[in-house]
Fold this sequence. Notes:
By secondary structure, the protein is mainly α. The protein has helices at residues 3-15, 36-50, 65-74. The protein is built from 3 helices and no strands. The longest helix is centred in the middle third of the chain and has 15 residues, at 36-50. The protein is globular. The mean pLDDT is 92.
Amino acid sequence: MEHASKFRSIVAAILQVPESAITDDLTPERVDTWDSLNHINLIGALEQEFGITLATENLERTQSIPVLRALLAQHGVNV
């Protein structure tokens, strides 16, 4: 499974939304299940899947799909 597909699968599973809903417009304001706990779960799952450690000092700033993609790209994971 390619990185982009893994990314969509992880985000969809944790946020309990269809993979088709994983777009750059997806934000916590649009998904009731994207709360702080699920965001921590999401960061942990992405770190585990891609074998990286994401900077988490500003977790609230990372609550968007484009920012998550950018964080992964900083570690050579293009999704």
